Amino acid sequence: MIPESTPDGLASIDAVTAALASVGYISTRQISTAVYLAHHLRKPVLIEGPAGVGKTDLAVSAARALGFALLRLQCYEGLDDSKALYEWKYGKQLLYTQILKEKIGLLVDQADTLDASFAKLAGFQDLFFSRDFLEARPLLQAMEQPAGSVLLIDEIDKSEEAFEALLLEVLADYQVTIPEIGTIRAQVPPLVILTSNNTRELGDALKRRCLHLHIGFPDAALERRVLRARVPAIAEDLLGQLVAFVQSLRVANIRKPPSIAESVDWARTLLLMHAAVLDESLVRDTLNVLLKRETDIQEVQGLLAKMTQAAVESTTPGAASSTASGSGPGSVPGSVPGPAVSLSPALPG
Amino acid sequence: MDRTLTGFVRALRAAGADASTAETLDAARAMALVGFADRETLKASLAVALAKSLDEKLICERVFEQYFSLPVGAADAQNTEGTQQAGDGPAPGARTGQPEIDALLDLAAGTSPGQTAAALMRAAQSVGVDDIRFSSQVAYLTRRTLEALGIAALEARLQQAAAGAAAEAANAEAAGLGAARDRLQRQVRALVEQRFELFGRPATEAFMTEVAVQRPLGRLSPPDMDRMRVAVARMAKRLAARHSRRRRVLLRGQLDFRRTLRANAGHDSVPVELHFKHRRRDKPRIVVVCDVSGSVSAHVRFLLLFLYALQGTVADLRSFAFSHALKDVAAPLETLPFDEAMALILSEVGGGATDYGQALVDLREHHWDSIDRRTTVLVLGDGRSNHSDPRLDLFAELADRAKRVVWLCPEPAGRWGSGDSEMLRFRPFCTHVSHCATATDLEQAIDEALSAYG
Fold first, then answer.
1. Stretch among A7-21, B104-118, B408-422, B438-452 having the lowest mean pLDDT
2. Which fold has domain A8-77+147-214?
């Protein structure tokens, strides 16, 4: 078969972790193992998990870390092979036949019989169904990358069953068959990553062909590392408090718990507001960054004071060591709607 | 290695995570790639290759821990033994002169735990330990395994020594042999018990669940309820899988002429891209009204459990519970763990005397807009309204407004209309009324309700 080349970043599981870390993606052992096995077993990876935990980002980061081209196919209802595989450039074909009309006329004129003119035309037929008139879509493009590629098939659950069936052929053999041209085989099998938000159950046939990776909400230590990588300017104290708060929010009784994307947004928000420590009013003002449902926001309103205090205390045992000015975090009694006292003139990132 | 993997896959299947042959092959290739050196990596690799959903992944991790670890008892035996050895050391050095007995003594002494485990496992496999089904087989299989190890020779020797117990030397030998035999027996027993946990218990559980699903809801015992939880979750998943898949044929039907023209304006109106008309299909909208009053108390737990499972299945599901007043219970079912949700619902609406009329009035007043011509209304209740006015006028209005009204009654048809049962008066307004005795009945009813949107 095709001689397989393994980039440095895929040499071992630790190498995968290191390569992903170099582009700012903090990977877990499971994630790295999945990427490593995907390459060496030549199998697609199906990633499931709640929204915003870095499913799509894994593909993007892997492409960057490995120096592969990223081909992205966003799935939606009604997606078909002409959008995913290839399409003939009808417009161009029409235009060319119009322009070449006279030439063809000339050509046919010289022939005496119907058979002869038909034979002459036949020689040109393929001209209009050649690569020049072929519009390659992501799946075909991925097959044609000479230096390897990452093929991201995003939110596969949004597409229809028929499209899944179409994928089976492509993912099993890494080839695309075009009746007019022939079979196009991948020079280097792409690293295929499919993501799903589980809005519908995927077919077993597709699942069986993929390695399966589930990315859930990160634990506190991992979340700290991710935030540190994504928002490097954030102060250590605030980071700890922020993570503790988000973690406690996830176990609260809400419908759409904040994921890592929301934590990153929130960290950036806090940075922008020059916050040095969490306090209740600050949290209250910026809660809509974390929670996207009105009912969820109302649900936690009453608990904010307690949760903020717990988050602050959990990270700074000595309490209030880093408060720049105003009331310390330990002195937030009940729900005092005080001014945003802890805004300190810290430098922005 | 292959033996190890196939055993693991069998244990997985027994635990309820289906792994196909193709996946097993993948797992074998993955194992060959990553090796056995790092436990966590191996675990992650197997999970990636064999599990295909979050549930299966959790099962996979649990089985991995069980499968690739020393039996609990065996590990203890070796530890205590290690400390004992420090004190007095007759065991390891003892020699009898018979090679097969010496080999057993070495195994029992546990000088190399890996070897001991492997030898025990070989013996256990040879007597078919993985086919264990019931806990009562543990003792039998332990004995068979010991026999396969060749315990008979050791026991014969032990008897000899015990017979001549007068002599000091014989006495010491008997004690040593006896201790070795007990240790071996403990280890083998622990191993067989571990295999039972892996292969036997899940099979027994699956069988009991199968039985529970067919059992009348009113007669479910507390352990049945726990099994039912698993069964119901599986049912809900099955329903979701069957009905969440939207089937739509794109290139068929009536040509949508206007869309086709518009799409092909750029091609000089040569119709290269065709568009077809689609009949819009309604998404399932289900409103469940669940009686949680005293008269159906035997069923309430189950009905709520089913509602709880459905919550994740049907996208557009409203659920109401009532005994005299009716309340929207979607929020607790959706956000709380089941036991808390149930306790909350029962404390808020449950337990009182049933009043269907009042429930309908509440529904009419507060939640009428959740019912429209696309809605299927599912009533779970016995229709016993304590002789109060059942407000048939409101029920008729409801039936008129909804797409379908399906009534599932836990009482058999023969008792409808007896005493305070209003079932016969409600029945003419329902699209479908059925006696719903078991979990399977309930699944079928929901399946039919969802099929109406096909």
1. B104-118
2. Rossmann fold (3.40.50)
